[in-house]
Amino acid sequence: MPMNPIEHDRRYGELDQVMRAYLGQPADDTEDGPSVALTAYLRHTWNTRPWSLGTAEAQLREYARNPPGSLRRRLGEFYPVPDVGLPESSIQDWLLLVAGHIRDSVERGEVPLPSVPATRWEWHARFPELGQFLGGWFSQDMPDEFGAGDDAHDAAVADYAATTDPQIVASLVGELRELLALDLGEAEYGLAVAELGMEVDPPTQYSPSGWLAAVAERLGTLQAGYGPGAASS
User: What is the pTM assigned to this prediction?
Assistant: First the structure.
């Protein structure tokens, strides 16, 4: 029978995070250096969960050296490595190469420099609540729920604020301000919101960054109403 969640995480939890970083990205790591996908994983993980890097390296090596046999495959007791565009015969060597780059990064203290997210995985890893907000309230289905026109954006923001725990709304406000602090060009902000799941254009009077700033201000104002003494004010 398939593994329970605890057993899965113990054996493959961080391996799965590494593999997710490659979705939509080429697995073109070489002996000379890591791929864009692995660099994005290293940059984010160094910044948020550096203790996980050793676990990732160990799980990658263990999987490469002891790939699942036919019995474990039949029972479902294994982690299926996603298709990364490599022939099956090359997967074990590639996993060991990736593990080696992670080990080198840790042992040498080589931390990728801060940067704008380089992959879809990194955008969502760095801005998880913003991805939930844009992908959940501003998908192509938004007009079916909130109507058409610029007022629909206001209705969607209001619905998010009314149905989401205030602490999570506060997390979103922080992520919006962090994204705006990257000081990108408008085309780059347009790409960022698309990577994070937004499938409709901002209201006509706003640029992408202008709309993000307006949402941050509106939700931040609502957050101020949750503070001490708000109920009596």
Answer: 0.89
